[in-house]
Amino acid sequence: MSEVQVLGGSVERGDEILTPEALQFLADLHDKFAARRDELLQARTHKREEAARTGKLDFLPETREVRESDWQVAEAPPALRDRRVEITGPTDRKMTINALNSGAKVWLADLEDANTPHWDNVVSGQVNLHDAVRKTVELTTPEGKSYQLRDDVEHATIVVRPRGWHLDERNLTFGGRRAVGALVDFGLYFFHNVRALLANDAGPYFYLPKMESHLEARLWNDVFSHAEAELGIDHGTIRATVLIETIPAAFEMEEILYELREHASGLNAGRWDYLFSVIKYFRDAGEKFVLPDRNSVTMTAPFMRAYTELLVRTCHKRGAFAIGGMAAFIPNRRDPEVTEKALAKVRDDKSREAGDGFDGSWVAHPGMVDICREEFDRVLGDKPNQLDRTREDVQVTAAQLLDVASTEGSATAAGLRAAVDVGIRYLASWLGGNGAAGIHNLMEDAATAEISRSQVWQWVRNGTELDNGEKVTEPVVRSVIEDVHKELAGEVPAELLEPAVELFEQVALAEEYVDFLTLAAYERIQ
């Protein structure tokens, strides 16, 4: 077994998580699966290069039999049969308590995009999940305010999102190489909590992010089967919901469910990362893949509509749950007019999803839980889900999934400034250890900054013309960055703002596109 080294510093109660037994469990996972993960990341690069050359993706001919044969995913356990409203958020202690008390059916406990991989966050998040599973989590702030689990609400079911396959964990090494962040997050949570979860009529449930192929789903399935066998847990106890948040994964939805079928729970329409992926994947494929301002791209855009319709049809055809996208709005009591308009949009969004056949949807703030539940209640009534709606009326082609050119809207000077502003603000928050940042009344995570910098990169490479007649060039972008920098100087601490500005400029204007800005950002944190 590989030699284990813990390079990160001391974290409160970290010795309860980083036990010799848990570290050996992680070492075993790395010995068996880390090399396959590396191979699959390399395969991503080759597939992207082919798509860039042809400007195309398509459903796989070699897996046609999977799409055309008759099979179903395993029946959901009782704790996951009603998912009409799910709240997302990082695993800090306050959010943990608020999410469990929120009235949502599920809490997506996020160790990925709404978190930052500062070592303290990685370990303390596991401590908070440990206490949440055992219902002992509580908090008293330095100001004397107390938070604890309420007795008068049904606590949300915990579903943990580990990091994506692409992210390393530098504070742990196995055999001299950095750990795989996904295996660390999954392994520690499963090892410490599986038996306590089962004793509470729950289970080890996960959201799997950033996958690009069914082979990556196969790897996760093998990890699950191995972990269950190692700890003597019944096969199929682990359940996973996969985020379809990359454009290549949209062409392999059925295959992804098939690979995970004994562990699968459903698919989620990860809308913001999906937009990022579309831009990233076809960033150099010409003007037909250039999107307008981010805020112009709604879920009714033809290519987004095709994606969500296909997701619902795929899930219900196979007995899996279809979970809708994020409502990122944060209520603002000081601006009731803005709040009222935003709430109306959230309600319309959730109404559309429920009407389309989704079984539930996401919100980012406890104040949005009731709206989401009300809209799904209207459609579901007393039913826990809509698995009986097979959506056989839906037929989606590859051309429809790639029809970016039909998206209404334009690139504007205001949109460029907003992309720079939000990107820099979020990166400053991320570098400071906060991955879920409230920006302009929206709860933003890493996908926001990814869209922002990717869109700027794409606009520059295509010489996109803005609504004021100006073409997007590097000097134009640098000028906007300078203006935003000056504007934020009195608002954001210099020790965060300066590296955030430098990092945004690096990933938005680099000659060679950086696959994930979090990889570059990770090297800048302690």
Walk me through the structure.
Strands 6-3-2-13-12-11-10-9 form an eight-stranded parallel sheet. It has helices spanning 14-17, 20-54, 64-68, 93-101, 119-133, 181-199, 214-230, 247-250, 253-259, 271-281, 302-317, 336-356, 369-380, 398-401, 413-431, 446-462, 474-488, 494-509, 517-522, and strands at residues 4-6, 85-90, 106-110, 138-140, 146-148, 157-161, 168-174, 177-180, 205-208, 239-244, 264-269, 321-327, 360-363, 437-439, 442-444. The chain has 526 residues and is of the alpha/beta class. Helix content is 48%, strand content 13%. The mean pLDDT is 95. Strand 14 and strand 15 (442-444) form a beta hairpin. The longest helix has 35 residues, at 20-54.
Helix/strand class = alpha/beta
Rg, Å, rounded: 22 Å
**CATH topology category name of the largest domain:** TIM Barrel
User: Strand share of the residues?
Assistant: 5-15%
Number of domains: 2
Physical arrangement of strands within the biggest beta sheet:
6-3-2-13-12-11-10-9
Q: Pick out the low-confidence regions.
A: none
Q: Report the biggest beta sheet as strand number plus sense, adding barrel if it closes.
A: 8 strands, parallel
Helical fraction? 40-55%
Give the overall form.
Answer: globular
* CA distance, first residue to last residue: 29 Å
Task: Determine the mean pLDDT.
Answer: 95
